[in-house]
Amino acid sequence: MSDESNDATQEIGLEAAGARPLFQLSLMGKVGAAIVLFWIVVALIGPFLAPYDPADFVSDDSFAPISASHWLGTDYIGRDILSRLLHGARLTMALSFTATVLAFLVGISMGFTAALAGSKTDMVISRIYDAFLSMPTIMLGLVVIAALGSSIPVLVVTAGLIYSCGLYRIARALAIEIKVMDFVEAARARGERLPWIIRSEILPNAVIPLVSEFGLRLVFSILFISGLSFLGLGVQPPTADWGVMVRENLAGLAYGSAAAFVPAAAIASLTIGINLIVDDFSAQRGQEIAEEMI
Amino acid sequence: MKPLLQVENLRVEAKLGAGRFAAIVKNVSFSVAPGEVLALIGESGSGKTTIALSALGYARPGCRIAGGRIVLDDIDVLALDRESLRKLRGRRVSYLAQSAAATFNPALTIGEQVTESAVLHGVMDREAANARAVDLYRRLDLPDAESLGRRYPHQVSGGQLQRLMAAMALCSGPDLMVLDEPTTALDVTTQIEVLGAFKDIIRDQGTAAIYVTHDLAVVAQIADRILVLRGGDILEMGETAQILNAPAHPYTRKLMAAIRPPPKIGDDGAAGGNQSQSEPSVIEVKHLTAGYGRIRNRKPASTVLRDVDAQVKKRSVLGVIGESGCGKSTLARVVAGLLAAADGELLLDGHQLAERLEDRPLEELQRVQIVFQMADVALNPRQRIGDILGRPLTLYYGMTGTKKEKRVAELLAMVELPESFSSRFPEELSGGQKQRINLARALAANPDIILADEVTSALDTIVGAAVIDLLKDLRERLGVSYMFISHDLSTVASFADRIMVLYAGRVVEDGTTGNILGLPSHPYTQLLLSSVPELRQGWLEDVTKSRAALAGIARAVEITDVGCPFYPRCPVAIQGVCETTPAPYREPVRGHRIACHREIAELTGFV
């Protein structure tokens, strides 16, 4: 009987909640999604569609222009650019995706541990990460690769660890904010252990901000890995990778060849596509938070 | 006289999504005369704030003013463009929100913020605005009016900040002021101070006001006319005296009935007789000292509780009352194990409880359950009700599957909610329903004692009364004991067997409800008792008049190391003794103690 008069408002609240889908893409978001989806499909089936083997010298001409047999021309030693681009998509995307997932696993577990395990642990982990953060990422990458030699596992782990710094910061801040909420206190008072609290109380409340962060970090690691490859420290030739392709064909720019431009455009379109989705997502979350605050 | 504000057939709609709207305010008409105070009262969801905001031509996000006319002094508010509205809002109509703490920017001085709107709207220049602000501070009885403007918000007390908000709203000299629950979050003693200041300044400046609240007793003190709302409709409108003395609508009568009459000195509490001295204690606290910061030599860096003794007997209710900052919640946190005590003993059924949560066995944790004040943040927004209630069952009793589901349904029934709620998320529930879930989660553990921390404070009168009834009922049926913490004496008195009054972390009085309400009692208890608003006009004047001799009403709680902490506010303090020597406990009857230097015979009706 007590809540009769609240029922009216509450029904409104219910319907409103049901009427709004969790996440609806705007036009720009849809464009972004289409671009990203396109590259994912390319990464999955591209190699089967490639007309040539990416390592074969299929033409006698270096920097052959676009033609019926070579849709995107050939590179500096006469390999088919389209084939290399299709093969490179898989490698570039798989590497950066793996690195980002690694960054997430390391960053979030470290961040949550630091926030919840007590001030001494927090101190130690935070200072180590501060030391990491104080170095420019590319330089750090160069040092590690110079010391360990370049291979794909080293590349992924390096990128993953470097980008775990930012995630560590975010995850730690989120966990600190959530852990003082009464529902976490209630769980503690009930006698819950730390792993359960992290899994059931903290993580579900941190997931949305972390998801929008994922896209952003993915972009960073694409750029980082391509950047290292471009400098000759990442993926090693003759393996096809977009960053490697830009570097190899740089000389072609002087001859008016688009060979270096094509992989660069691929990198740009993929990162822009991801950014469009992330922007859309964060804008809508921001809107929701603003509405909640008012 | 021509009305200042005329609202005709107002209709406000809330967006349901996809072009669908629902009316949350339906066909509401009323007027406010110059200098008049109109109160809008109703429970949450009654549309009272929505209506009040429409006087500023404002609708909250997701809402729109869908129809009607709002005329302020010949200006058609709804026809104004953005820029003219902006001017109107600063100059002619001002808004005063519930929480002063949230309204003031902590990074700017008070003076800058009080004068900002007047200067921004070009009503007056900075000099004039500052002068007016100082004048307003004086009229609002604020201390150090000259230098107050240079202070920052954290440097004044909560009650002062609330009054400063009135200065902010009045600085540009508006014709109409909209006050949204401005005293709801305050302690009773602070509420008197703020209400008195508001009333004087409104009369003094001749400003009309729309006063939004759910508290009829407050309305009785300040309003000329009352408008009773429910579900966006006007149920009743009339002069304050008429509504209070002869309410026409059954709902108004129900609202009045939900207000507990303030406990009268000499009253015997509702459950006072239920107490037996020989009954064993569920929880016993001995010489407890606790606080925050690093603990050295059994003393925390910042002490909140000092040498506190308390017992909760089996099947009984211990009420803990005091103003904010007195250490009530800290006591609950220490008992629950969330905060380690610096010194003292904690006994559960006569057995020592470990101080740290991690050292307590699960079985002990299960027997002591805590229910937090704000159900909004006490329930994980990402868990379904079924999971929230099911977790303690799994944790303590290893229940799974249908057995768990069945028990969840039983728990929901226990708190009078339908079984279907188990698939909902907390945000789909109303405030009262959330508080019931919060309670049901504690019941799921099948505890011996529930520590209830201000569980009704955030709820409307009617909803709060229903929650109290539920607590009583559960005690009868399940035999659970409560430590019931509240700053609301009338709620505590209606429910508790024993009452413990805390002041600045010390027990100043402790006894059965009947004895606490009866004479003699501690000066602080008497101050609290006389501060509970009564449902009659003129109460505020009476109480402030009789209290003119009492300097202490508006003073903030100061935590002291020596002497009696109540000394600065005490009307019967003995100079040279009270501020230097800790007060001894006096025992007028067995099981009732009062910490005071005065003799028992001296502790009678001086408030």
**Assembly level:** heterodimer
Which percent band covers the strand fraction of chain B?
15-25%
CATH topology-level fold name of chain A: MetI-like fold
In helices, the fraction of residues of chain B equals: 25-40%
Uncertain runs of chain A: 1-21
Largest sheet of chain B: 8 strands, mixed
Please name the fourth-level CATH homologous superfamily of chain A. MetI-like
Strand percent estimate of chain A: under 5%
Report on the architecture of this protein.
The complex is a heterodimer of chains A (294) and B (607). Chain A has 294 residues and is mainly α. Chain A is 73% helix and 0% strand. Chain A has helices at residues 4-19, 27-49, 81-116, 119-133, 137-148, 152-179, 182-190, 194-230, 242-248, 261-293. In chain A, helix 3 (81-116) runs antiparallel to helix 8. Chain B has 607 residues and is an alpha/beta fold. Chain B folds into three domains: 5-258, 3-Layer(aba) Sandwich (Rossmann fold); 272-517, 3-Layer(aba) Sandwich (Rossmann fold); 524-602, no CATH class. In chain B, 34% of the residues lie in helices and 24% in strands. Chain B is built from 22 helices and 22 strands. In chain B, strand 1 (5-17) and strand 2 form a beta hairpin. The radius of gyration of chain B is 25 Å and the shape is globular. Classes of the chains: A mainly alpha (294), B alpha/beta (607). The interface between A and B is large, with 34 and 56 residues.
